[in-house]
Design a protein that fits this description.
The complex is a heterodimer of chains A (306) and B (225). Chain A has 306 residues and is mostly helical. Chain A has 13 helices and no strands. In chain A, helix 1 packs antiparallel against helix 8. Chain B has 2 domains: 190 residues, no CATH class; 27 residues, no CATH class. A two-stranded antiparallel sheet of chain B has the order 1-2. Chain B is flat and about 70 Å long. Classes of the chains: A mainly alpha (306), B mainly alpha (225). The interface between A and B is medium-sized, with 14 and 13 residues.
């Protein structure tokens, strides 16, 4: 007698696991980590270490307390820790970095159900909370030789164009900023690795960056500066592409990227803050369910007529 | 229920803020520091005690159909008295509480206790209930005020605390910090009392794969074939 084998979907399996994807993201972040040590000194390694360690610890601790399955081996906490560290100034007090890591993992990720359930990007949200909580230390940019400088975007918004670093320094990351966001070269390398490994698709980063560049051109600002300064590159490649908090559909990703770009430009050119990448990603995270609903694939037969 | 149980139920088991989730607005607004938390708690407790006693005494006189307007008029009367007293004896506290002092009139805890308890129980019981609920409200406010003032501002009742006053987390004194602390306290109270939130039950009824799966894959039910 023939036996019809019936099983529950999904019917197509692939080898990719959360752990492998996260490992790829960690690998992609390593060039920027190396660049941060070269530019800002060894303390940036300490900040990254503290963030990663506290993220892993708080994930382990929360899941222990709530008697949930332990997920630290999927490396997602490592990625959150690295991304959060990349969004902090190198001079941040370590207890504040630890506080931000706990907020990222416990409040933003675990309270909403853990990996895959968080509606907002943990690192971005933690950064915004830290911006509100520690506005002083979150906006002081110190170099290893103890000199400090404003970020290029802060200079532009104050109209001090003459103090801006050269294009080459902008590209290599020798300017004030968060420790992982300044070196455009390293971030592009990492982003290219993720694209080649198909961890992320090109839609969101391209739409995000293109929107910012085109809008800068229209508004009469230097598009190259707008592209290389602030958190645009790290945001577009590593944060706006977060699986659980951004749309899964192709057109959804493009809309998401354009929305991020528009909000970034609005905040950068007309807002009170010099930088708007993190706010734009958080706001678009909130809109993600609606974008997905709007761009959902239609059934082949036309659908809709019941 | 003994008189003591009647009093203590307001502190944890039926805590008006953390379990009944009433009066959230004044809780978030006035728990930014311990002083205004204490002031708000005391003012609300006095109003609650007086309104519970009077509503309980008048419970047979007030017609059922117009009871809510009657309660509100009585509560508003007591709030006006408390407000005048605070204005006269502690203008600084009046300044700190601002609009939230007159807004005690619409505090759900007071109307809620009138509706749920005072109009059905004796005067003594209602007075004890009012005191218990007031104590629970005040304790919660002071606890939130302590957390928010100590970590958000580095002081307690205005006295600076050595290490923390240089390292404060200023978001805690703002509105989002209030929500964080509020949520955390609710979680802690749920953890240590019997009021555990009901786990959502997933059945096979709504599952599109129910026909072939029979609950084998999600561990919900034993396969029955």
């Amino acid at each position: 007698m023939n036996k019809l084998i019936s099983s529950v979907s999904p019917h197509i399996n692939s080898n990719s696991t959360t752990q492998k994807i996260m490992l790829d993201v960690v690998i992609a972040l390593i060039p920027a980590a190396i660049a941060s040590v070269i530019i800002f000194g060894a303390r940036s390694l300490l900040v990254i270490g503290v963030c990663v360690a506290v993220c892993i610890l708080s994930e382990w601790g929360f899941e222990k307390i709530c008697k949930k399955e332990n997920t630290i081996s999927d490396l997602s906490a490592v990625v959150t820790g690295m991304l959060l560290a990349f969004n902090l100034p190198v001079s941040i007090p370590l207890w504040q970095a630890a506080f931000g890591s706990i907020v990222a993992i416990v409040v933003v990720k675990q309270l909403f159900g853990g990996i895959g359930q968080n509606f907002a990007n943990p690192a971005i949200t933690a950064r915004i909370i830290m911006m509100t909580a520690f506005s002083g230390t979150m906006t002081s940019w110190v170099f290893p030789d103890a000199s400090s400088s404003a970020t290029p975007l802060a200079l532009i918004s104050k109209g001090q164009i003459s103090g801006l670093p050269s294009y080459l320094n902008m590209f290599l990351g020798y300017h004030g900023g968060c420790l992982g966001e300044t070196c455009t070269l390293a971030l592009l390398l990492g982003g290219a690795y993720l694209l080649v490994k198909r961890v992320i698709s090109w839609h969101t980063p391209t739409a995000f960056i293109a929107t910012v560049v085109i809008m800068s051109f229209i508004c009469g600002k230097d598009p190259l500066y707008q592209f290389m300064s602030g958190g645009l590159v790290i945001g577009a490649f590593f944060m706006a592409t977060d699986y659980s908090s951004s749309p899964a559909t192709k057109w959804g990703k493009i809309i998401f990227g354009i929305g991020c770009g528009l909000i970034t430009v609005l905040i950068r050119f007309w807002g009170n803050f010099p930088e708007g990448v993190s706010f734009s990603i958080l706001l678009m995270n909130i809109l993600t369910p609606y974008i997905e609903k709007m761009t959902r694939a239609k059934p082949l037969t036309g659908g809709g007529k019941v | 229920m003994t008189k003591l149980q009647n009093f203590t139920k307001g502190i944890i088991k039926e805590n008006p803020v953390l379990v009944l989730v009433l009066g959230t607005c004044p809780t978030l607004a006035t728990s930014t520091n311990v002083m205004s938390a204490l002031g708000m708690g005391a003012a609300t407790t006095i109003v609650l005690l007086c309104s519970n006693v009077v509503i309980s005494a008048l419970r047979k006189t007030i017609p059922d159909k117009v009871r809510i307007p009657c309660f509100i008029v009585l509560i508003a009367g007591f709030v006006t008295m408390v407000q005048m007293l605070v204005k006269a004896f502690s203008p600084a506290l009046d300044e700190a509480l601002g609009i939230y002092l007159p807004l005690i009139v619409v505090n759900c805890i007071i109307l809620g206790r009138a509706e749920m308890f005072a109009q059905k129980n004796s005067i003594v019981d209602s007075a004890i209930d009012g005191l218990g609920m007031g104590a629970g409200f005040t304790l919660t406010l002071v606890m939130m005020g302590t957390i928010r003032e100590v970590f958000g501002n580095g002081t307690w009742l205005g006295f600076p605390i050595p290490v923390l006053s240089d390292n404060n987390i200023s978001i805690l004194t703002m509105a989002p910090g209030g929500f964080f602390v509020f949520g955390l306290l609710i979680a802690v109270v749920n953890k240590f009392s019997q009021n555990k939130p009901k786990k959502r039950e997933f059945g096979c009824e709504g599952c599109p794969s129910a026909d072939i799966c029979h609950g084998k894959n999600c561990g919900e039910v034993e396969a029955d074939d």
